[in-house]
Known about the structure:
- It is a single chain.
- This protein is of the alpha+beta class.
- Helix content is 27%, strand content 32%.
- The protein has a single domain (3-193), classed as Jelly Rolls, CATH 2.60.120.10.
- It has a 5-stranded antiparallel β-sheet with strand order 2-1-8-7-10, sandwiched between helices.
- The radius of gyration is 16 Å and the shape is globular.
Amino acid sequence: MTTLITWHENDPDQPLFHSSNRDDIRVELDLHGVRYEHHVPVTIDLSASSEDILQAHGELVDAISTDENYVTVDIARLHPVDSDEWRSTALAARQKFLNEHTHDDDEVRYFVDGSGIFYLHIGQKVHAVLCTAGDLLDVPANTTHWFDMGSQPDFVAIRFFKVDDGWIGNFTGNDIASRFPDFDTISQSVAASA
Length: 194
């Protein structure tokens, strides 16, 4: 279930805002210049090729690309597999963006399936956005954030870029991510309260 939790950057134990209402989430994120939308997910075989997934979402992809001048669109996906190689790959992928960073380009993700959490460190607050299937999140360029896909990553997302290397992270060196509840903690809490 899509959820937004906001804390003061120095108090990860006391949420200032908590909602799973998509309209409330959109309004709250809009106050910080972050675009959030929800679209009805397209039903597709998730083992389909990246090209087939993009084609199935063609109308949405075209509209977003045209509106925002995105020139590169691709698919990011990870699904649990019972192998040491997969666990190693998943751990490396998770660790890569689990530290606070920025990008020179907008970070735009449309979740086709599964989930992940974007933690936006804006001003003196941290906003954790648990995105699920149908969610589109547009994190503006140079917004300080981190992303957690959990210990068992399971998602398919369409990524949009204005420049080819816009996805490269500029890491801040701040260890703030280690002080906030991670994906596993938040997703379990949300599932228990549903």
